Every structure is written in C-alpha cells, then in structure tokens.
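Subject: for your reference before the review

Hello V.,

The reviewers asked for a structural picture of the protein, and I figured it would be easier to keep everything in one thread rather than splitting it across files. Below is the amino acid sequence we used in the manuscript, unchanged from the supplementary table.
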Amino acid sequence: MRLLWRARSNPVAWWWALLTLASSGNIALWFLLYRHFYAQPAGSLKSAFDAELMLFLCAAYVFGCAFRSFLPRADVQRICLFDTWLSSVFIGRSVATVAEVCFAAQWAIVLHLLGGMAEVDTTVNIAWAIVPLIVVAQCCSWYGVLTTNYLANAIENSIWAITFLMIGISLCRLLPEFDYVSLFHVGEFRTPENDAYGALTDLEMTLMLADRTKAGGEILFFTGSFAYDKAEAVGKELVKQRPFEPAGVYKSLQILRKRAR
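And here is what came back from the structure prediction:
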C-alpha cells in the first residue's frame, strides 16, 4: 500500500476508513444480538422468529457487507481498491449474491410471520414472492458483471425497487382495520399557525382513518365539541370523497357509516 494512499488528506482513505468503521460496528452489533437471543428462555421471541435461522441469515449479510467494505471493488468496471486475489470479480460477486439473498430471506420470513399472525393474505403472498424476485435480480447482476452490460444492472436495481415497493404495500396492509373510529376532537387543535409544520390536516387524518375502516364500520363526531363546525365540514367532505353516508345522531354523536363497495 503506497504511502500516498495512506495520507490523511486522501479522500479515498477517509472513505475506506468510514466503510471499515461502519462494518466493524455492524459486526459488533451482530455479536450483541447473538448473545441476547441465546440468553432468552425457550418459548420467548427467540422461538417465534426462529432465532437460529435469522441469526445465520443476518450473519451472512453483515459479514458479506463487511467483506466488500474491507475490500471494495466495482465489479462491472473491473476496478478495486486493493490488488489481491480476494478482490476478484468472481469472489466479490459471489459474496454479494449470498448476502443479498439472505437479506431478502429475512424480509420474507418476518413478513410471512406477521402476515400469518394478522391473517393478511396480501402480506403472506408478497413474502413468498420476495426471494424469487431477488434471485432473478442476482441473475441479472451476474449477467451484467460477466458481459459488462449496464442494462442488466439497471434491471437488477429496478427489481430491488419493485421488491421494496411490495414490502411497503405489505407493511401498510398490516395496519389494523377499524369497526369504529371516534373523532371527538377534530378541529379543536389544528390551526393555521401549525400548518407550517406539515402534519396531516384534520381532513387528511380523517380520510386516512376512513380508508382503514371496515365496510359497515362507523366514524363518530362529537356534536358537543366547541369546534364541531369544523368537524361537520370534515364530515361533509368525507361523504363526498369516500363511500360514507350519514347514519343519524345518537345523543351527542354524529354517525357516518361506510357503505359496502
């Protein structure tokens, strides 16, 4: 290693040092997780998540990323930071393939477990699709590395983007669905002064909750609120924008019921 490369003013040396530091921190965290899970009694979260398998998959990802951080390289461009046989394209891409598939497998396991617990078929089905998609992505990556065709790498990255879009959808589907939503304080706290903070408006919050309300479910507004005029306006917009209809008044509650689609 040349003295010039090791100079503190060299940005590449700083970049490599940061990669090494981050990877060392990840390895340390993995060992902490290892100790934590193996110290848990039987029947705990360790059993629910099959800690042995998850720790193995996590290790493959963490140590694979660390390997490529200690010996960084650009496979398609055929360049590396350290001229050693460990920096070969075949070894680097093989390590990355194993690490990325294990990373995807962790997502698949967690989503399958959560989807099964919540009885959400969408999440379970997406969990089954994650690993096959990433395997296809790895095939594209290998094709790009062997042929130096950047189009294959673009397809690989697109598959990753689609996969995480699906993961986002599956996580959203895990949000609970409501039979009743009580919005007694709509309009009481939202003012023009706090609009600048960018939080949801009363209407946006109501529409979000309305989307998670079951067919036949009800949203309740408190007619005794000092800001009921604002709540009433929100209710009228809700009826216009979502399949809700007035269902009468019970004592001090204005009821809006969601129609079956």
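For the response letter, the relevant points are probably these. The chain has nine helices and six strands. The CA atoms of residues 83 and 254 lie 73 Å apart.

Happy to draft the paragraph if you're swamped.

O.
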